[in-house]
Design goal:
heterodimer; A: 15 helices; globular; B: mainly alpha; MetI-like fold; two-stranded antiparallel ribbon; 15 helices; 2 strands; 71% helix
Chain lengths: 300, 310
């Protein structure tokens, strides 16, 4: 995050200030360690071999004689795991596509202050957002639509996030009116205006809102748990949960290749593999929220 | 679509304005239909809270029974337990993670070592993007009864191993601290944004006047971000009956239901057990209370900061 630091007009730092900065830096280093250790210990745990000797603490140093990629081999060579991975990708891709397809027009319409009926649309969107009737009425709706055990049941009910919609609306509102007016004078219809002028200008916000949607679809385990029964539709979070909940190797129905690596290593490796897409997407996401675009535009 | 050349003016008739935005209304057909099906049918279905719901008779066909479901819930022994647990986790998380986020934001703002600042910032935001399933996997490696990292350390110092996830005393702390670990960095972002909006001449003037770093934090930084702090607290109060379903559902087990069961997890088990109407009544109660709290906190936010989120 770019930040201009305040330069002290007085040369030198006083003794109390030195203590202050020392404390700030020490606490930040401490926080770094506190956040890093659980992540690091999970990664090192996933490389633990069957013949591992020592404590977990010693395991965190990844000695070459205590290192094995057997857990990853077992998981990546397993059909069930690969299938779950692709199911998750499917849910994410369909989900982001339908989410943007619904969110962009809605946000654009709400950003037009002269649109007759704008307040009415805002009310339609805010009522379900503020009044949450709970999971069972939604479950009955999905059941009545015949979507049980279909991937659509997982991504359609959550396809529009009011919060993301308001973020996007704030961005659209920030586009100068002169641009829209000049396009209108040149004879562009409202639809052409959106496709040819607004959307190309809004690439950053569409990308970042899309990424936020992608994260939530990838991480969702509640809706798959509620609506999917078939094993061949099972996404990664559900498989991961089954693997984590199993206390012994016999309980693995989906993944049969266990035994080559210790059970904790299999668990840690599946955690790491499930987190990888997020870790890859993270720098891109961070680029957007670090700019403050998201926060600044919520209140439009 | 015609090419109507126009300049917006307030004098234009409503019909002309509607005509000019025709394409927008066409664009809105699908999203609004979506809202009616996926958001308003559930609200309509909420009526089963007042019915003796039989799946085979459907939402409309089931008989009305008034407030019987609500009475059953309020009279039950688990009502106060659920309410207590839910509020305990919401308030506990608020009390732990908001001060931590403020501290982190101020420290990041004050830190003059760029590498340290950027590293901590990047790492602190990351856990927000990990799901609670993944978090559960990470916590298992730390807290497992026999061979978790934390128990290893406890044993090395001569302590006994505890199964943190099934121990009634330890479980609430696992919930509160793991949430703080995951969300502290993300929660700091809004405070960092507020800090960057402070007029730097204030600090320059303070330095000229001989203020120490402590005094700058105490008398400039904190008062400047106070409205944002109040806003964040108020908005969090609006969701006080949520408590964090994903987290508790992943972490809890029957042995810690007494301290781990919140309204949402109870409703979910009600769904699994087929207690549709009763669980809907509980969900509706939560939704109505949430609406009241949100309206209240929104109004308070408007008073404090001059603008509200909605």
């Amino acid at each position: 995050m770019a930040k201009a630091h305040i330069k002290s007009p007085v040369v030198g730092i006083s003794a109390t200030d030195k203590v202050f900065y020392l404390l700030v830096n020490t606490v930040l280093v401490f926080l770094f360690i506190v956040i890093a250790i659980p992540l690091w210990s999970t990664i090192t745990l996933s490389f633990r071999p069957n013949h591992f000797i020592g404590t977990n603490f010693e395991g965190m140093f990844l000695a070459p004689w205590n290192w094995s990629n057997a857990a990853y081999k077992a998981l990546l060579g397993n059909n069930g795991f690969i299938m779950a991975f692709f199911n998750s990708i499917k849910i994410m891709v369909y989900g982001v596509a339908s989410a943007l397809f619904l969110t962009v027009p809605l946000a654009y319409a709400l950003s037009i202050r002269t649109l007759p009926g704008r307040v009415c649309i805002i009310v339609i969107i805010l009522i379900p957002h503020m009044f949450d009737v709970g999971m069972i009425p939604s479950f009955l709706m999905v059941k009545d639509l015949g979507l049980i055990d279909k991937l659509a049941a997982v991504y359609l009910p959550t396809a529009v996030s009011t919060y993301n919609c308001l973020i996007m609306k704030g961005f659209f509102e920030g586009i100068p009116d002169e641009l829209k007016e000049s396009a209108r004078i040149d004879g562009a219809s409202e639809f052409t205006l959106l496709v040819r002028i607004i959307l190309p200008l809004s690439k950053p916000i569409v990308m970042s809102v899309g990424l936020f949607y992608a994260v939530s679809f990838w991480n969702d385990f509640f809706h798959p748990m509620l609506y999917l029964n078939s094993n061949n539709l099972m996404p990664l979070p559900i498989l991961l949960r089954n693997i984590l909940m199993a206390s012994g190797m016999n309980e693995f129905v989906e993944v049969s290749a266990f035994g080559e690596a210790p059970i904790q290593a299999i668990k840690a490796a599946s955690v790491f593999l499930a987190a990888i897409p997020m870790v890859i997407a993270y720098p891109f996401i961070q680029r957007y929220f670090a700019k403050g675009t998201l926060l600044g535009s919520v209140k439009g | 679509m015609d090419a109507s050349v126009s300049v917006p003016s307030s004098g234009k008739s409503l019909v002309r304005r509607i005509q000019r935005h025709r394409a927008i209304y066409v664009l809105l057909v699908i999203p609004i239909t979506y809202f009616i099906i996926f958001k308003y049918i559930p609200i309509w279905n909420g009526q089963i809270a007042f019915k003796n719901f039989m799946p085979r008779q459907g939402v409309l066909g089931s008989a009305w029974i008034g407030f019987a479901n609500f009475v059953e819930f309020f009279d039950s022994f688990y009502f106060w337990e659920l309410l207590r647990n839910t509020v305990m986790y919401s308030v506990g998380k608020l009390l732990i993670s908001i001060p931590l986020s403020i501290m982190l934001a101020i420290m990041l703002y004050e830190c003059r070592i760029t590498v340290l600042r950027k590293t901590v910032q990047t790492l602190a935001y990351l856990p927000h993007f990990l799901s609670w399933v993944i978090m559960y996997g990470i916590l298992l490696g730390l807290l497992a009864p026999g061979d978790g990292l934390l128990n290893d350390i406890a044993k090395a110092f001569g302590g006994r191993g505890i199964d943190y996830l099934t121990n009634v005393q330890a479980f609430p702390w696992v919930v509160l601290l793991s949430d703080a670990w995951k969300e502290m960095g993300w929660g700091a972002i809004i405070f960092i944004a507020a800090l960057m909006a402070i007029d730097p001449t204030l600090f320059e003037a303070a330095i000229v006047e001989g203020a120490t770093a402590w005094q700058r934090v105490r008398y400039i930084t904190l008062p400047s971000i106070l409205p944002v702090i109040i806003m964040v607290v108020l908005l969090r109060l609006g969701t006080i009956l949520s408590g964090g379903f994903n987290q508790l559902y992943m972490l809890y087990s029957p042995s810690v239901y007494s301290v781990g069961d919140i309204i949402d997890t109870w409703v979910f088990r009600g769904l699994q057990e087929g207690k549709f109407a009763l669980a809907t009544a509980v969900g509706l109660f939560k939704g109505l209370m949430g609406l009241l709290l949100l309206t209240f906190s929104n109004r308070m936010t408007r008073k404090v900061s001059g603008s509200s989120l909605y």
